[in-house]
Every structure is written in structure tokens, then in C-alpha cells.
Amino acid sequence: MGNPLIVTKYLIPGRRPALLRRPRLLDFLYEHLDRKLILVSAPAGYGKTSLLAEFAHDVDLPICWYSLDRSDRDLRVFIEYLLAAIRQRFPGFGRRTLEFLEGVERTTDADALVGILVNEIHEEIADYFVIVLDDYNLVNPSEAVNYFLGSLLQRLPENCHLIIASRTIPTLTPRDLAVLTARQEVAGLGARELRFTAQEIQQLVLQNYHQELPDDVAQELARQSEGWITGIVLSTQATWKDLLAGAVRARGASSGVYEYLANEVFSQQIPEVQQFLLGSSILDEMSAARCDALLGLDHSAGMLDLLEQGNIFIVRFEKDEERWYRYHALFQSFLRHKLASDAPERAMALHRRAAEILGGEGEWDAAFQHHMAAGDVPGAIALILRCDDEMWEAGRLETLAQWIDQLPPAALASQPRLMCDRGRVYMEGGNGAQALALYERACRAYEAQGDARALAQTLVDRAETLRMLGRPREAIEDCRDALARLADLAEPAPLVAAGAHRNQGISLCQIGRMAEGTEELRQALELYREAGSSFGLALTHGDLGVALCMAGNLAASEFHFEQALDLWLRIGNAGNIANVLNNLAMTQQLRGDYPRALSTLERALDYAQQAGSRRLEAMIWAGKGDVYRETGQWEPASDAYNEAWRLAEALPRPSLLAYLLNAHALVHCGRGDYTQALALARRAYEQAAEQGLAQDAARYQATLASICLEQGNPTLALEYLQRAEQAFARAGARRDLAQAWLHLARVAYARGDRAGAFGYLRRMVEATMELGHDHFLVPEAARAVDLLEAAAAAGVGGSFLADLLERARRGTALAGWQPAAASSAPPPLRLRILALGDSAVYVNDRLLSSADWGSAKAKELFFYLLSFPARRKDQIGNILWPDLSPAHLRSAFHVTLYRLRRALGVNDCVLYDEDQYMFNRRLDYSYDVEEFEALLAQAEQALAGSPAEAEACLQKAVALYKGEFLDGMSFTGEEWCSWRREELEQRCLAALQMLGDLRMARKAYPEALEAYRKLLVRDPLREETHRAVMRCLALSGDRNAALRHYQGMVGLLRDELGVEPVAETVDLYRLLAAGAELPDLLHPRPAGNPS
Description:
The chain is mainly alpha-helical. The chain contains 55 helices and 14 strands.
């Protein structure tokens, strides 16, 4: 990481007592919190930050705050701070995204970064949370940041939402905004809504100045100021009446209201405070120690306290017990302008001192800006040269480019290293022509300085640019020149030499000199191995795999792809893993191992999705289409190409779109739709020709030729093929040449030229035998069976052609193969819910913890919905959130519902129908309350005909009852569950009574006593049960125990209720005391219905 992160950028601003709470705006935020994006857009001074800070402190959700500045236009810087903001609320988050960020040299693949970030949010953050991006207008000029944010918004998990505050509408792509709008996932507040109303102005003046403002004055002020009044909130130094009157007058003046207010506040400060304000204003972030160092003071802490207490346009942050401050942006602008106008020499000196301080603390971007503000160009250059390597390694290319672009042209001309830095950034951004111009200037400068090592590195960089621009021969010359200069150095430079060999090897392969190219790549591989560069090794193994595949050495190609795959797996770069797997699948496809190729492509697709790379996903879907097409499975092939097209059309990859047009043409040709096939192939050829892709254009000409042959037009086919053959020969593309010769053989045969046809077939056989594989010829050979039969009969091609003919007759079907991933399904959801006693919910036998629920309210909502057939949102809100406003209730409900669904792991656990929410009872679940009530109902039904069955049901029911309903859970208000708790408790007591009675009826007295005593533990004042115990004891032969039980019960009733036993209980006692026989009445009838 280049610069240390400035902590105040991701801390939530503190609440300030002088700010007015604005419920109507807070309610808007609450009401729309379920949207993916809320935009708060208005000019400066309308209270955007204040509103969002108030909301952040008010809402019962994690808020991740990110205050942006111009340095965040660098996408890598933006992502690092975004991760820091999330990590502030979710410690430990972002490890995988940071690893990916640090493992790549560039951040141009924003989709891959978005994919990894979204996956990490989904897997690591269970809670509902909000990211606030404040002052987004400062990064809005960055296309990279806008693209990243647009892509992120399209893929955000359900629990993550963005609020963006900006002076302008963010420049997302029209598609991004259109999709969000169509899905009703965006809401906004503008200047019209943010303007202070007359009533709010009255509340503000009363709150801050303890004065009542008349209605007409407030309305006039609101009209004149157009609601732009936050400057008043920030000042308490002037008499409010004079200040407001001046503000209204200044509204029409050229200086503007804010300048008036700032001047009023500033002019009332004592000189010492004024000087502190002016001097410290050059700092974006202030601490007492930093101000002391800048201004040569020892009492900055006291000055900052004074400013905060006086509410002088300052906001405080706290981190690790250290206080940091930031001036309000508009007031800071006023102070800086005043300092520069009134004391320009002091301003310059302070900027130079600030550059020194911040540079020493590693805050390079801020230090650079201070150097430039001081006019200290040499200092700025020295800073860049000091940290450019680290900035490059950290991937902060945009920041580096911004620095260099701010330097005067004359300064750049004397610094070839800066030319190289800028050239590399141009190259990473795809601007090869400008990169090349800077490299050429740098080469001349290094040549003049005699710096051979730097010149060699620049030549390698220029070679890579030339190669990317389609000028491989010039790239080869540069690489050779670089290696010659390195040979004269006293100290070796293995990484520079490795880069030279690698670029030379790739360039040689591009011009068809495969043997030389692979040798150069092997030398690069050895140098990277000696230097210990895993990244270089992984890249070069992949390059060798491609080169050897082009050369037809599939076995060696697979070896190098496997080596690259192993390295990328260890590095942990999902995008490069996907890319290598895609290439590996290509070699398997070329060998005709279609099932294995599809299996590898499935793995590649999984990694591409992890990386979030639409480009790779599109390429892999295209590869799947190729496999299906070559095996004659037209429908799956078409579906795969359509999915690839869907992904590719949003990418700046016209070459891929041309490839897919050609692929669709081949599918239509295979289906016999030659008219559509011809139209698609022509479009593919035209696009490739426009882009200067000679070899691709030649391939599409070969497709046009194949279609013409099927249409019976060999003359036009020959015209296409002759041009394609020349292009393939120039590129040394032997596999393409072999296919072209097969097509040309078909043309000659159709025109009656058997000798010419057999001659082309011999060339095809010779080239294919050199390649070492021929499966790529089978689909086209299936269209030329007559030709191949005639050639084989004439002895052309020997056993090779005979074998190809046999396979062409058989075809290449996949024999019902299915990828493993297609048959795997997620395990079925099984819920076990316990509410009788301590509440617990198990998902597939795993107990949900408090962390899983996210909040106690989510668990309460779950049991509330379980307890009713269906409930409207307002009914739920009145019980669970009785004190919230409707807007706040909407937010709280959706957040809690999300947490509930996330805890259970399935969205349809709660259903919504006709404005009512209900638990989905079609799920596979068990609920002890429902089982308890079902057993009681079964007992009631069985009571008359089968007392034994009834007893068994009752025994199971009371065993389920471990305690009161939802015992131990705390609720906002217990009304909703208290009646249910009491109902279930009474049913349990009745069940225990009946269970005891049934046991006593069959003279199972010990078991009956057990049931009665359990009941008395729960309800010790139940006389009916005490009488049953007395009967049971007497009938079991222990009258004395029955009499003692009576005495204990009498004492209990007197102590607890102050009453005597009822007559029935006293009569039973007298009978027992007299030793009389117990009448038949003592044998119980069923003592109450458990239902």
C-alpha cells in the first residue's frame, strides 16, 4: 500500500448541537432505506453531510462512512478507503479483496474487483448495513471509479445499500441508472427537498438563538434565501438578526451569501484566532500535534477546543483517543483564498512546511499537492522519484498519472524516469500510442545520460507496447537491444532480462516463429525462477502453454498450463485461475476430450464468477459453445453463445463480439440456415477487418467460404479462401492453414479438379501430422465424406486420412455427458423450532446463534409470525415497534425481515400475499408448539375410545413442554405473547391433570402421582390437583401421607391466598381421617379437556 490511510476519511462526523434535526428528511431516508441507492444531490451549503451524519447516529444499523477527496479518483485508492470504511464497522473485512488488489499490477478489470468484493460482503457480512459516500462530486470525473461504482450497484447483495452525497449527479453509465430506476432501486433528495422551510428556520433560530421568529419574517427569509441557510447553523458569533438581514441582502450580491457569513464570523475573532484559522486552513485534516508542527505553536489543542466550542465551521472526529478536525469545505475555501490574497509569502511557506510534514508521515498525495501549491516543482519531482516504485507496486497508477500531469512540460522533459512512469500508466489504460511516444523520449534521454540499465527497462516496456499495438517485429528488435545493453552491465538485472525474453518470445510466436519463441519464453521462465518471482513464473508458464498449443504440442502445453494453474492457486488470483483453466480446456477440446473440456470450463466459470470478471465469463461461455458446436449439439451451443453475448455486449471487447457473431454463423450453418449464417459471418468479418485483426478476419473468411460451399457456390468460396490462406501463412497459423486446405480441397473437388483437391489434402495431412492432433478437423470432415472417400480410395493420406474419415462418419456426440456441477443441488432446508422453554431454532441441525439472527428483534419477528396465520405490516409494527414513525417503521421492518431471512438461509421462509406477511408452512420444519397442540388434539379424539392412546399422546405432549412459551426472551412489549404463553401454560396443566387421572383410573398410582406433582410444581395452589394427590396416596395404601399432604396444602392456601380449602377438599380429608372406605366417587372421571 502506497500511502497510509487517513483515518478521518472513514469516521462518521460527530453530532453537533447547533444543527437542526430535520425529521421530514430523516423519514425520507428511513422510508427508502431498502433501495440499493439513495442520492442526496444539491449545491454546497444545503446540509447534505449534516443530514447524513444525523442519520448515521440515529439509525440502528451499521453505517460505513467514506468522505471523499480528489485523491480518491485513483480507483485503487478508492477501493482501499472503501474497504477501510467497511472494516471500521466490520473488523477483519476485506482480506480477500485486498489480497487480490495487491496481487495484480493494475486495477483495469473493475468487474473482477467488484465480483470479489461482492462475494466477500455476501460471505462475511450477515447484517444489513449502509455505505455513505460523501462529497462524491470530487471523484465524479474518474471514469474508472464511476464504472466500478455502477458495476457494484448492479451486483450489491441484498443487505448492502449505498447513500451518495454529491453536488452533482454521479456520472454512472445510462444503463446503470436505467436498470436501477426500472427496478425501483434508486431514490433521491435534491436541493428542493433540502431547502430549509419557514418552519425549520423558525425552529433553528429558536434552538440556537432562543428567539421566536415571526411567521412572515420566516417566510420572507425562506423566499429570499431560497432555503440556503446552513451558514447560519454554523455561526453563533454575530447577532442573529443582523446576520440574517445581511444574508438576505447578500443573496443578490456578487460575493454571495456564504462569503458574507464567513467574513462576518471571521472578522469577529481576535487576531490570534484569525491567524490560527488562516494558517491551519491549508490542512485538510488537523490534529493538535500537526497544527503545532505546522504553525510553530504549543497550544493548538486549546485553539481547536475554542473553535469547536464556538461552533466556528469545524467538525471533530475521534480515533484511538486522538482528536482530529476538518473545516467546513466552504469556510476552508474562504480562508485559503483570504490567506493567499492577504499573505501570499506566508501561504507559500506554510505549504512547503506542510509538504515536509506530510511527506515525512507518508501522506504522499497531500504532500505533493502542498509542493505544487507552494510552486515547489523540484520538491514535487523529488517526492515522485522517492515513491514512484512503491506507488506502482501498490497499483496507484491514476494518482501517479495525476501527479506527473500537473508538472510543467519542461520539468518532465528533464526526467526520463517520469516519462516512463507516465508511459506505463498510458499503456495500462490502453493508450499505446501516447505510451510509445513517451518511451521513445525516455530512451533518448537515458541514452544521453549513459544509464544502460534504465534504458534496457524502457526498451522492454516499449517492446511490450509495440507488441500490444500489433508490431511484433519492432518489439523483437527492442528486446534484443535491451538484452545487449544488459550484457554489458557489471551487475545483472534478472527481472529486466526476464521481461525482455518474455516479450521477445511472445512476439516471435505472433509472427509464426514458434520454436524461437518458445525458447525465449523458457529463458524468461528460468530467470523468473532465479529471481523468485511467482507472478512472473505464473505469467510465463501461461504464455508457454498458449505458444505450445499454437505449435500443436498439446501435451507440453497442458503441462505449462497446469504449472501456471498451481502458481495462481497459491497466489490466490481467481481471475488468472479462470483464464488458465479456459486455456487448458481449449487443449482438451483440441484433443477431442470434450467431456473433460466441459468439466474444466465449469471450473473456470466458477473462478470467473468469484473474480467477478464478465470478460472471462463471456470467454468461457464462448468456449462451452465451441465444444457443443463441434459435437453437433446446436441448441446448447446457441444458448452458450447467447449467454456469452449477453455478458460481452457491455464490455469494450469488439473482438469477442466478432468471434461470437462468427460462432453463431457456424451454428446456423450446422442447422442448414445458410442465409442467416452468411449474414452473421459477413458482420464478423467486417468488424474484425475494421479493428485490424488480420488473423481473425481470415478465420471469418474461412467461415464464409464454408457457408458458400454448402450453398453450392465454390467460386465465391475460393475467393474467400485464397485471401484467408495468405493471411494464415503470414502468421504461421498451421492449424488454421490445415482447415483452410481442407476447405480448398472441397472447392477443387466441387469444381471437378480431383488432382488439385488431393494436393490440398496432402498438404492438410502433412501440416496436421506436424501439429500432432487433428480432432479440430472432424466437424468439417463430416461435410466432406465423399471427397475423403475418393481420396482414401486413391491412396491419399494413408492411414491418417482413413482414420479421419472413420471419425467423420461416427460424429463427435457427447453421449449424454453432464457436468458434475449440474447434478449437485444444495442440501434441503430443515428447520427445528423450539419455543416451549428456552427458545431455539436449528437449521439443518445447526443452532442459530445471536450473531446469526443479527438482532433480538429478528428472532422476535420470527416467533411472532409463527404465532399467527398472517399479519399486516401495520399490525406487526404496532406490536414490535410501537414508538416509530411510519417511515422509520418501514425501514426497521425491512431490515429485520432481511435479518430473519438471512438467519434461516432462505428468502421464502416468510411469504407476502395480499398485503400480509406469513410464515411459510410449506417448508420442511418441526415446531414444538404445533406438535404439543397436535398431541393434545389426538388425545381428545382418543379419550372416549382408547384411553391408553390418549394417555400416550398426553405423555408425549407434557414431555415437549420444557417451560413457558419463549421463556427467557425479552420483548419490546409482551402483550402479543403473554396471552399465548398463558394459554399454553393452562393447556399443559390440564394435560398433566388428565394424564394423572387416566393413570389413577388404571390404578397406576406412582405414575399418577408423578404427573400430579409436576402439575403442582407449576401451579401449587390448584386444589383439584391436591385432592387428586390425596386420593392417589390413600388408594395406594398410605392414608397418613394423604393426611400430611392435606395439612401442607392448608398452610399453603392460608399463607399465599389467606383462604381455607373448599368444602369438597375438607370432606375428602374427613373421610380419610375417619378411616372410612372411599366411595366409588374417589375413582376419577376425566378431570378436564386438555384442548
